Amino acid sequence: MNEYDSNRIYDLAKSINYKKTNELDKADCYVLNTCHIREKATDKVYHDIGRVKKNFRGKKKPIVVVTGCVAQAEGDIILNREKYIDAIIGPQSFHKFNQIIKNIEKKSLKENLTDFDVKEKFDTLNYYKNSDSSVSSFLTIQEGCDKFCKFCVVPYTRGAEFSRPINELIREVKDLVSNGAKEIILLGQNVNAYSYNDKKLSNLISEISEITDIKRIRYTTSHPRDFTEDLIEAHRSNKKKLMPLIHLPVQSGSNKILKAMNRKHTIEHYLEIINKLKAVNPMIKFSSDFIIGYPGETGNDFSNTLKLLNKVEFINCFSFIYSPRPGTPAAKLSEIDQDISKKRLLTFQNIAEKIKLKFRKNLFHKTALVLFENKLKNKDEFFGRDEYSNSVIVKSKENLKGKIKEVVIKYGNQNTLFGEINKKLSKRNFAA
């Protein structure tokens, strides 16, 4: 979602004659778009600002803006701690970016804007065409969350759940298509909670599927509590365009810990969703998020998490040691020993990596449909992604950007698959 927000901020900035630059030491304005999910992300803000100060030592100071969730959560603290910053803009206020920049240029005033008017934000952005020219483009359809998981800052930094009108979204998709988009990735803090005038995520997927030039659709991030039957059915009815990789965060394999987190779903319910999805499309695979070492997690709780990992065989996992975020209910709880958490994380990641590599090796010498996104610099090589969002590189004299090709996977590593364009008109041989 931060990437989408960054692109939209640039669309705004262009209208007041700013343009992107790779010459960082010559920039007139720095915009740091931030995430507040984990502690290290907050620390990185101050590190990046320190780097800017160093680059501009003895030179004219650029305008420095911090936006995103860190700005929302810690705006006053940041301004007091780092005087080099000119403006704080929350994620629901960045549509006022241009006016804030003008105020700074004219009056040298510091700004701290963290309003929660998400409707005003998107009403403003609708006046600016989305100029993202990526083959695979992001589209925010929903923001905020009403679930109030005890570890999460999103309800406090992004606000309540808000869904954009479906006609606005279709118009933006068509704008992206005119820029060359072939794949749309639908974004939301709780994307499957999308609801506008009785239209749900499944309805939106169906309407986007009717746009001929859109070849692929993905969505993230989902919550198990909102994974409804109609969305499950969408994976049958829109099987051709709706990709068979679903990111469905579970956070823990222990019902006790899920209850402590206020997730309001059980492992049994989670597995029921998994089974229903595989029933409508056996090719579907899953990725997930895991918090290791949540307050109160015992050895038995962790063992249950490992059992879930092995049972589902997630092809990709995002796992982190629990990090208390200020202002959340969980921040008041006693943390477990960090050495124990580190050992558990290492154990978890080792198993997760083996599962991932097993899946990837099963793709070798089989075919995959790859959407190519760009050409690698100074090489006759093109980068793309298969149905499961695996990175794939092939050599080709033909310009493959924006095209979908059948690729025979030859080999790969933990990050990338390498293959050749399949020149034979043979029946595809999928991995199970």
Q: Main β-sheet, in a few words?
A: 5 strands, mixed, barrel
How many H/I helical runs?
13
Please give the share of residues in helix. 25-40%
Computed over alpha carbons, the radius of gyration is 23 Å
Please tell me the total number of domains.
Answer: 3
| Coarse shape | globular
CATH-scheme architecture of the largest domain: Alpha-Beta Horseshoe
**Strand-residue fraction?**
15-25%
Strand and helix map with partners:
Layout: H1 2-14, E1 29-34, H2 39-55, E2 63-68, H3 69-81, E3 87-89, H4 97-107, E4 111-113, H5 118-125, E5 136-140, E6 142-143, H6 154-157, E7 162-163, H7 166-178, E8 183-187, E9 195-196, E10 199-200, H8 201-209, E11 216-220, H9 229-237, E12 245-247, H10 255-261, H11 267-280, E13 285-292, H12 299-312, E14 316-321, H13 338-361, E15 367-375, E16 381-385, E17 391-395, E18 404-412, E19 416-421
Parallel strand pairs: 1-2, 2-3, 3-4, 5-8, 8-11, 12-13, 13-14, 17-19
Antiparallel strand pairs: 6-7, 9-10, 15-16, 15-18, 16-17, 18-19
Helix pairs in contact: 8-9, 9-11, 12-13
